TrEMBL record:
Naturally occurring in which organism (per UniProt): Limosilactobacillus pontis
Keywords: Amino-acid biosynthesis, Cobalt, Diaminopimelate biosynthesis, Hydrolase, Lysine biosynthesis, Metal-binding, Zinc
Name this polypeptide is given: Probable succinyl-diaminopimelate desuccinylase
EC class (word): hydrolase
Organism classification: Bacteria, Bacillati, Bacillota, Bacilli, Lactobacillales
Claim: Kinase is one of the keywords in the record: no
Length: 380
């Protein structure tokens, strides 16, 4: 493809509103694009305009399967008036493409799609199978990845490339992610007699105070560092002159390989049990989302292959790195903990979810080349 066509594809993807949903529109667009180049696709629509998509190319003479994956949804735009560039226009200014999803991760998605198309158009089909997996809902609950995991979409993969933004750096490990809800049950009375009730908000405050130091004794992970943890949402009370009988909070924790999801959940459970026995408050916990950490050793052959491909094609210096974010790979490796995984994409992870989110055209074009290089080198 010419550069202007590659840029146009990313612009058109950004213009499709897929904020926490509507992936079917992205899937339909990709189906038409693939079909125009003779590549068959399968769209798995599962209601409410949600959909996954799978496409693949290759001779199939080599039994190995290399996976490329990316998600079709984006996070929301809380206040479009704060943007200098329309978040859904895909505007190009001074070598940057602006818009929601420009970094996270319609650029990586488009680059993977174009890599498949250009390999096929050049008659450069891999001896094995190159499988492209586009998912729904990665930003909120990962319903698409869970559905694909149950269908066995990743069961036979030999290795996997996740196209999240990394600025060309090859990420060989990322933390997990646990989201939990704590509900505090109290006793409601008039605020003129607070001693006769139990303020549910106070129950949350006791939890918050203990949570601050909950992981201070945990050893740092060799690659992922400390267990990161935060209280992110608090809700409680309906009326100022009434002691609230219910309140809740949400928190997010980033488990590491050395202190995994099971260890984190056990520590949370122990704290809740302790507070329920030692205070008048009744706290209940629910794990609403749990993704495990990903780790492929940096000296792994596939990690090194990806690093060499990135070094040959990105305009900037690239290196091996880790991130504290999570990806669909946590779902795809649920029953394949031995699956080699790297995360590699366009401009910086720090651009994800930002106002005036963007990617640079040189980094986007480099990602296309790097993905093709990985596919060639993997099967050669």
């Amino acid at each position: 493809m010419e550069t202007n066509e590659q840029v146009r594809i990313l612009q058109e993807l950004i213009r499709i509103h897929s904020v926490n949903g509507n992936e079917i529109a992205v899937a339909d667009y990709l189906e038409k694009l693939f079909s125009a180049h003779g590549i068959d696709v399968t769209i798995d629509a599962f209601g409410d305009r949600r959909a996954n998509l799978i496409a693949q190319i290759g001779e199939g003479t080599d039994p190995r399967i290399l996976g490329f994956t990316g998600h079709m949804d984006t996070v929301a735009v809380p206040d479009a008036s704060r943007w200098q560039h329309d978040p859904f226009a895909g505007e190009v200014v001074s070598g940057h493409i602006y818009g929601r999803g420009a970094a996270d991760m319609k650029s990586g998605l488009a680059a993977q799609v174009i890599a498949l198309i250009e390999l096929k158009e050049a008659g450069d089909l891999p001896a094995g199978t190159l499988k492209f997996i586009a998912t729904a809902g990665e930003e909120l609950g990962t319903p698409g990845a869970w559905r694909l995991e149950k269908q066995g979409a990743a069961d036979k993969l030999t290795a996997l490339v996740v196209g999240e933004p990394t600025g060309g750096n090859v990420v060989f490990a990322h933390s997990g992610s646990i989201t939990y809800r704590i509900t505090s049950i109290g006793k409601s009375v008039h605020s003129s007699h607070p001693d006769q009730g139990i303020n549910a908000i106070d129950g949350l405050l006791h939890f918050i105070e203990q949570e601050r130091a909950l992981f201070t004794d945990v050893a740092d992970d060799q690659y992922l560092g400390k267990v990161q943890h935060s209280i992110t949402i608090i809700e409680g009370g309906k009326q100022a002159n009434t002691i609230p009988d219910q309140a809740q909070l949400f928190g997010n924790i980033r488990p590491t390989a050395v202190f995994n999801n099971q260890a984190v959940t056990a520590r949370l459970t122990d704290l809740i049990d302790q507070l329920n026995h030692q205070t008048p408050f009744q706290l209940e916990m629910e794990i609403t989302q749990s993704f495990g950490p990903i780790l492929t050793e940096p000296d792994n052959d596939f990690v090194q292959l990806a690093l060499h491909a990135a070094q040959r094609n990105y305009p900037n210096d690239v290196e091996l790195k880790t991130i504290n974010g999570a990806t669909d790979a946590s779902v795809f490796t649920l029953n394949r903990p031995d699956l080699p995984v790297v995360v590699l994409g366009c401009d910086s992870w720090n651009m994800a979810h930002q106002t005036d989110e963007c990617t640079t055209i040189p980094s986007y074009l480099a990602a296309i080349k790097a993905y093709k290089q990985i596919a060639r080198d993997f099967f050669n």
